[in-house]
Design a protein that fits this description.
CATH superfamily: Vaccinia Virus protein VP39
Strand content: 15-25%
Structural class: alpha/beta
CATH topology: Rossmann fold
Low-confidence stretches: none
Order of helices and strands: HHHEHEHEEHEHEHHE
Largest sheet: 7 strands, mixed
CATH class: Alpha Beta
Strand order of the largest sheet: 3-2-1-4-5-7-6
Number of strands: 7
Mean pLDDT: 91
Length: 268
């Protein structure tokens, strides 16, 4: 069993239940190291100026949109996704939560045409799905106000997508590329009119082990047999503490390399 079908299965289970969806968001934030890194970067490096206009570019289940509404209390968040069911689910959930500062639309990031509109753009695990990535970076640059900032989280080419070569079959499906090198993503962003101000690796040695123990191996167990799903609570009883410690170590480490990259850029 692959990662994406499992993710979709859980998403479908909570799509129309507000309480379960909040629990789902909490589990995603707890178990996925990328969420730890993204939330840390936003809190430490994106200045809250009050009435900001924020773009969640490819919001998926909407967990980062939800985080943004909580962290930036006076900001307006505009979130898009190419999948209509994701957009409808988010509209339903946020309306039920009475959060009126978030707006959702179906959009293809290669076709958006926003001009000088946003103070901050967040793009989490999106760029690896898009073949025309330079076009999207140009669209982001056009959409930002002068001095506006872009934060991108995406796999690196050092084993991102759980693949180490372009011919490898990825555990993570629907990816247009294995990942980015520092040189590749920096040059593409700068050609698009953005200045890269910070580049960091995530999922270093500690994070890679946490991913395997906390996400990959449990999914493989669940995929092997439905009966084996019953052992997962016992599996996590013995491994969760170690997984969380490893994630914390990765968050606090200056990784010299890793399978994820976090890039912060600014429109000059």
């Amino acid at each position: 069993m692959k990662y994406d079908p499992v993710k979709r299965t859980f998403g479908n289970l909570v799509s129309r239940n507000v309480f379960l969806r909040k629990i789902f968001y909490w589990i995603l934030d707890l178990m996925f190291l990328r969420s730890w890194h993204v939330r840390k970067e936003v809190k430490e490096k994106i200045t809250n100026t009050g009435r900001m206009d924020i773009f969640d570019a490819g919001m998926g289940f909407g967990q980062y949109t939800y985080f943004l509404t909580k962290h930036f209390r006076d900001a307006s968040i505009f979130a898009v996704d190419v999948k209509d069911e994701q957009v409808e689910d988010c509209k339903y959930f946020f309306s039920k939560c009475k959060i009126d500062r978030a707006e959702f639309e179906i959009a293809d990031l290669t076709k958006i045409d926003y001009k000088d509109r946003f103070d901050f753009i967040l793009s989490v695990d999106v760029m690896e799905h898009i073949v025309e990535d330079e076009l999207v970076f140009k669209n982001f640059a056009n959409a930002l106000k002068k001095g506006g900032r872009l934060l991108v989280n995406t796999p690196s080419d050092l084993g991102g997508s759980d693949a180490h070569d372009h011919d490898d079959e990825s555990f993570i499906e629907e990816h247009a590329r294995v990942g980015y090198s520092k040189k590749d993503i920096t040059e593409k962003m700068e050609r698009a009119g953005l200045k890269v101000t910070d580049f960091r690796y995530s999922y270093g040695k500690f994070g890679t082990i946490s991913w395997r123990l906390g996400i990959k191996y449990p999914i493989l167990i669940a995929g092997a047999s439905k009966i084996l799903i019953l052992i997962l609570p016992f599996y996590y009883l013995f491994t969760l503490w170690l997984v969380l410690i490893l994630m914390w170590l990765d968050l606090k480490s200056e990784n010299k390399e890793g399978t994820g990259v976090i890039v912060l850029a600014e429109k000059q």
